[in-house]
Amino acid sequence: MLTPLDAWICSKIAPSVTGAPNEPLTRSRLEDYQLGRLRATVEHARSHSPFYQRQLAGIVDTGLRSLEDISALPFTTPADILAHDLRFLCVSQGEIERVVTLCSSGTTNAAKRLHFTRQELELTVDFFHHGMTTLVAPGERVLILMPGELPGSVGDLLLQGLERLGAQGILHGIVRDESAAIHQIIVEEIDCLVGLPVQLLGLVRHADAATIPPGRIKSVLLSADHVPAAIVREIERAWGCPVFNHYGMTEMGLGGAVDCRARNGGHLREADLYVEIIDPVSGRPLPDGEPGEVVFTTLTRVGMPLIRYRSGDLSRFIPQPCPCGTVLKRLARVTGRLAGRLQLASGGRLGMAELDEALFPLPGLLNFRAAVTVEHNRDCLQVSLLSRAGASAGLCRAVRAALEGIPVLRQAVAGDYLRIAPPVVMTDSNWQSSSSIKRTLHDYREKKKC
Ligand SMILES: [Zn+2]
């Protein structure tokens, strides 16, 4: 079985759709279910959430006749949650089990808060349980390199999901000491690792990685909004095991989509989420296959439902059938975030994804930071590197060459719109690990102009 998700979703939607419970999942059964859930979600939000009462007040008819009708409803944005999180609630605060606070990456210190009921956390545990059977067998041991101390945190929910499938989850948390994590992998005979892409790259490229017995690690799950293909290739090459992607954000209820064994696109959690890809400028839904912004509506959340939430992530649906035969929609690897893409003086746009794919293949590079400043009316790209001990000598030259190979940067340099500053190599001690924080391309140009 290449994916367990179709059977799982089939069993979840069976009580809500016509047909025999053991009837296989089809696209039309799933869409019947989604239409019913969309109608229910819109009505529930409009009746119980002060935010949506107001947001939907001007819309005379919210009765959806088809899935496409959802496009008549307004978007919900991260700024809406930032400003009014409590006005989204459809239940009393006493019914909220967990509040997740997300720090904004903007210039303010404002934080976005997401509220979940116990039942909603249960839905995520259920997704993790079934999703993880793609890559973990009962009896196997999984080291979780993500935060998990707090009840309801991603690590905690994953531990619960793994327990249900008969695997043993072991919480390590964010990696602060690679040697200690590698030691734990060996001593505890870990079969599978779950973590953030740059953190896993740090393990693969650590000197102690050679002490991990060949074949010890059987699978890796990388979870992030953007998983660089260069890091996937590096882990697969070093450890000879398949690397799976998980895409999710807190607003989705932490889990969103996971690869099947064909590892060709994330299979969406479609019983809980209705996902659209829209043109980020016009806001219009795009046909399957065209790249745009991921927008989703929650289908099973009663505490803080979200209608047409703009994720800011860039991806596309993969229209071709998956070798696993799934009827679920598949999301291509997220290629970056809208907000993180900077407009250069040359007119081109640069995002972390381009930098990631160009720089992470370079041996010895563990992480980097990048910022654009202004210098004599030109853009200036500054990159700081975290490198493996002893790897810095040739690395700066290689980084520079890799940066000059990125088309948008090459054009900007050729037109004298941009200078690439000599990369700065940092050591572990002055790096101040920011690995748990979203990696972004910083824009310091406005500040310098003032
Ligand atoms: Zn598949």
Question: How would you portray this structure in words?
Answer:
With 450 residues, the chain is an alpha/beta fold. The protein folds into 3 domains: 5-120 and 264-331, ANL, N-terminal domain (Rossmann fold, 3-Layer(aba) Sandwich); 136-241, 3-Layer(aba) Sandwich (Rossmann fold), CATH 3.40.50; 342-449, GMP Synthetase, Chain A, domain 3. The chain is built from 14 helices and 20 strands. The chain has helices at residues 5-13, 27-48, 50-55, 78-84, 118-132, 154-164, 178-187, 197-204, 229-239, 352-359, 392-404, 407-414, 428-431, 445-449, and strands at residues 96-103, 111-117, 141-145, 168-171, 192-195, 219-223, 243-247, 257-259, 266-268, 273-278, 292-298, 309-315, 330-331, 342-343, 349-350, 365-375, 378-387, 418-420, 424-426, 441-443. An 8-stranded mixed beta sheet has the order 4-3-5-6-7-8-9-13, with helices on both faces. Strands 16, 17, 18, 19 and 20 form a 5-stranded mixed beta sheet that branches. The protein has a 3-stranded antiparallel beta sheet with strand order 10-11-12. A hairpin with a 7-residue loop joins strand 1 and strand 2 (111-117). The protein is globular and about 65 Å long. It starts with a helix and ends with a helix. The model has no long low-confidence stretch (mean pLDDT 91). The structure holds zinc ion. Zinc ion binds at residues 2-3, 260, 262, 267, 322, 324, 326.
